[in-house]
Amino acid sequence: MGSIKSVLVTGGAGFIGSAVCRHLVLTEKCRVLNVDKLTYAGNLSSLAMLDGHPNYAHTQDDICDAARMAELFQSFRPDAVMHLAAESHVDRSIDGPDAFIQTNIVGTYNLLHVARQYSATLPEAAQATFRFLHISTDEVYGSLGPEGLFTEETPYDPRSPYSASKAASDHLAMAWYHTYGFPALISNCSNNYGPYHFPEKLIPLVILNALDEKPLPIYGKGDNVRDWLYVEDHARALHLILTAGQPGQTYNVGGNNERTNLEVVHQICDVLDDLRPRAGGASYRDLITFVPDRPGHDKRYAIDATKLKTQLGWQPEEDFDSGIRKTVQWYLDNESWWGPIRSGKYAGERLGKS
């Protein structure tokens, strides 16, 4: 669908959102308005390469401010919305669920309401091609046993305040499609990793703790399983869903890289042993420390991305071995990005023990 040239991206200063903005502007040559409140995880330095680009702008606004959102739609006049703005860390949702309810549920409602009003004012041809892609998570499906995969038909069974708030926003998006004929689509992705990842999450936390010779904390026995997706593969998938997906449909995005948390940490340690050996020849694996599990910790997530691959033709370019090596190398090369975060916003402390 070549008619999508101007995209309003919410949460574009976050980890996945910044990858989406870079992809849209630099690869797809789209106009992008990045609407980001710049909470703790928003970081404009992840978009430094877009500074001054004629097709890119950022505005610091809250998606819960409906009047301001309406102004932005009217001034920017997007062909589509990619909605990524969300509180997204399970541990933080345990400590403080209120922000998750406000941003993820009320904020999504505001955007759907404003976008529907805006799209109704468009010429008929533009109305027909307008799209609203709501980016969600595989955590809405709950926890898998040792076998099987999440498909688009898997019943919702959220287990944390975070996943419950995302499930609610998914249902709102689909309700707008079914009730109003609003052209909403949903994507549900597995765990992302890669450059510019805020260091509260497992992979960057382990890399940076290792470089600081700090303990590498692993919840429980480290046997919880996640399916890992390289963030730039995800950004490509999201643009494809936006332009080629069908309104009213859900598309699962997964990297087909199941690993236990302990396997992930072992692999990071092994890559670091190769790229930045410790003094004295010890392995970074010696820093691994097992800590009490977090409440309601889902045992296993794994995505079946067959629909996305067969219907839209997407394939990931990175497997976990290549992606994790690229990721570790990026953190080694980019202390200027993560150093200020570690010294200011987030130093690696444990969250979510409530």
Q: What would you say about this model in short?
A:
The chain has twelve helices and twelve strands.
Short key terms for the protein model shown above:
354 residues, Rossmann fold, 3-stranded mixed beta sheet, 42% helix, 16% strand, globular, disordered C terminus
Radius of gyration from the CA trace?
20 Å
Q: Which strand order does the major sheet show?
A: 3-2-1-4-5-6-10
Strand content: 15-25%
Helix content: 40-55%
Class based on secondary structure composition and strand pairing: alpha/beta
Low-confidence stretches: 350-354
Biggest sheet descriptor: 7 strands, parallel
Q: Might you state the CATH topology name of one domain?
A: Rossmann fold
Number of strands: 12
Terminal CA distance: 47 Å
What do the pLDDT scores average to? 93
- What CATH architecture of one domain do you see? 3-Layer(aba) Sandwich
CATH homologous superfamily of one domain - what is it? NAD(P)-binding Rossmann-like Domain
Give me the number of helical elements: 12
What does this structure look like?
There is one protein chain. The chain has a domain at 6-197 and 229-257 and 302-317: Rossmann fold, CATH 3.40.50. It contains twelve helices and twelve strands. It has helices at 15-27, 66-76, 90-95, 98-120, 124-129, 161-180, 202-211, 231-244, 261-275, 306-312, 320-333, 335-343; strands spanning 6-10, 31-35, 56-59, 80-83, 131-137, 184-189, 191-193, 216-219, 225-230, 250-253, 258-260, 288-291. Strand 5 (131-137), helix 6 (161-180) and strand 6 form a beta-alpha-beta unit. It starts with 5 loop residues before the first strand and ends in an 11-residue tail after the last helix. The model is unreliable at 350-354 (pLDDT under 50).
